[in-house]
Specification:
- The protein has 193 residues and is mainly alpha-helical.
- The protein has one domain (2-185).
- The protein is 80% helix and 0% strand.
- The protein contains eight helices and no strands.
- It has helices at residues 2-21, 25-71, 73-86, 91-101, 105-117, 127-151, 154-172, 180-185.
- Helix 1 runs antiparallel to helix 2, helix 2 crosses helix 5 and helix 6 runs antiparallel to helix 7 (154-172).
- It is elongated.
Length: 193
């Protein structure tokens, strides 16, 4: 939804700005379309780059974890036991549970990734899909204030853009300052390996 309001807010200002200076429908239509395409591509590229960077970081952390499990399984088992104990598991049960989880390297890695890094190694996300989704949501938002200009122009279209933009912004929720969407995806850094 954040992408939708991004596109909406960006293109409403662009369209109204252009419409104020050049009321001809064609000029507004072309500007609005250019704003939609440029904005959607830029959002998609930004999303792709940030997802890719985050994925590489997680893959590096997974690698560190994988090596630690192979080289010092005993320390990793103790670490897991401590995590379970800290969560309130009884010490004996925590030791058994950790021993069980360390039995196969794959399960051990999954468990350490989940408990220490807070991630599922099988679901690191797809930068490409995230980029496509950013493109589409921005484009949908940017299309809303542009729609009236496909059917009419002049003052009527300007009002329709304003009203459509307001309704859309209310429905989509206006993006909070500071870009909460990006921050929510990031995990806290891992403590140790
Ligand atoms: Zn570990």
């Amino acid at each position: 939804m954040f992408g939708v309001s991004d596109g909406l807010v960006t293109n409403v200002s662009l369209i109204l700005g252009v419409a104020g200076a050049h009321p001809a429908g064609d000029v507004v239509r072309i500007s609005g379309l250019a704003g939609l395409v440029a904005g959607a591509f830029s959002m998609a590229a930004g999303e792709y780059v940030s997802m890719r960077a985050q994925q590489e970081l997680l893959e590096r952390e997974l690698d560190v974890e994988r090596q630690a499990i192979r080289k010092s399984p005993e320390a990793e088992r103790r670490e897991l036991t401590a995590i379970y104990e800290k969560r309130g598991v009884d010490p004996t049960a925590a030791r058994e549970l950790a021993g069980e989880m360390m039995r196969s390297p794959e399960l051990a890695l999954q468990t350490h990734a989940r408990e220490e890094l807070g991630i599922n190694p099988a679901q690191l996300g797809s930068p490409f899909l995230a980029a496509v989704s950013s493109f589409v949501t921005f484009a949908v938002g940017a299309l809303l204030p542009l729609l009236p200009w496909l059917f009419t122009s002049g003052t009527r279209a300007i009002w329709a853009s304003v009203v459509g933009g307001g309704v859309g912004a209310r429905a989509g929720g206006v993006r909070p300052a500071g870009g909460g969407a990006e921050q929510r995806r990031l995990r806290p850094p891992a403590e140790g390996a």
